[in-house]
Inverse folding.
């Protein structure tokens, strides 16, 4: 990775306090993937970057340094910040946390960067949350090389049957299952494959299946953003 980067399009994924007045920030950049950097003095009352280093704000960032941990030398607003409210805000934070947890440092994911931007725009609008989040989760897994195969294990692989039941293993895929716990109806899996989530049972099955697929890569540490959906008024959340 270059030791000096100038005016790179980016979004803030996560930030934590560092030393007396600085931040360590996780940035998702267009051309360099996920980059971690120190934003010196960013928590200071007179810092210009303090108001800009917020989620969902399109940025132009400048970075320097040869180590894994860069130094943020400049930050500008690229466009107006996206406004997300209520459950859509929590959904955006969930998407950010997935990227922060799963993206390797300095691995270029230009296509995923575009998908992320489209997801934020969809969250800002009135598109169905189930569709938006499931599409992002599927795309994220595929872009990271963990894409779900919607075929039944076998030699050769078989097509899913809408009236049959299947067990899902994140590492192996789908296998026939006549009487097992947590089985998925073929019609529900086909609906996810085809992006048809209008049916409530299909939407619930898609959510459960993608949680299983993501958990295989997230490990045992729970996602902090999911706790935001645990409050009673968000009990019907799509995540």
């Amino acid at each position: 990775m270059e030791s000096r980067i100038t005016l790179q399009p980016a979004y803030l994924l996560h930030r934590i306090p560092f030393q007396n007045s600085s931040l360590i920030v996780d940035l998702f950049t267009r051309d360099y993937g996920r980059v971690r950097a120190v934003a010196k003095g960013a928590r200071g009352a007179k810092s210009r970057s303090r108001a800009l280093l917020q989620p969902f704000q399109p940025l132009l960032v400048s970075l320097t340094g040869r180590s894994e941990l860069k130094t943020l030398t400049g930050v500008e607003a690229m466009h107006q910040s996206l406004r997300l409210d209520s459950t859509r805000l929590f959904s955006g934070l969930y998407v950010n946390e997935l990227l922060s947890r799963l993206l390797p440092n300095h691995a270029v994911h230009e296509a995923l960067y575009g998908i992320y931007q489209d997801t934020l725009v969809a969250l800002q609008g009135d598109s169905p949350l189930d569709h938006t989040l499931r599409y992002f989760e599927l795309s994220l897994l595929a872009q990271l090389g963990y894409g779900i195969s919607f075929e039944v294990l076998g030699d050769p692989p078989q097509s899913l049957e809408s009236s049959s039941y299947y067990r899902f293993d994140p590492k192996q895929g789908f296998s026939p299952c006549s009487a097992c716990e947590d089985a998925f109806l073929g019609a529900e899996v086909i609906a996810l494959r085809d992006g048809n989530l209008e049916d409530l049972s299909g939407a619930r099955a898609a959510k459960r299946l993608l949680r299983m697929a993501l958990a295989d890569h997230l490990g045992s540490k729970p996602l902090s953003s999911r706790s935001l959906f645990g409050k009673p008024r968000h009990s019907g959340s799509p995540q």
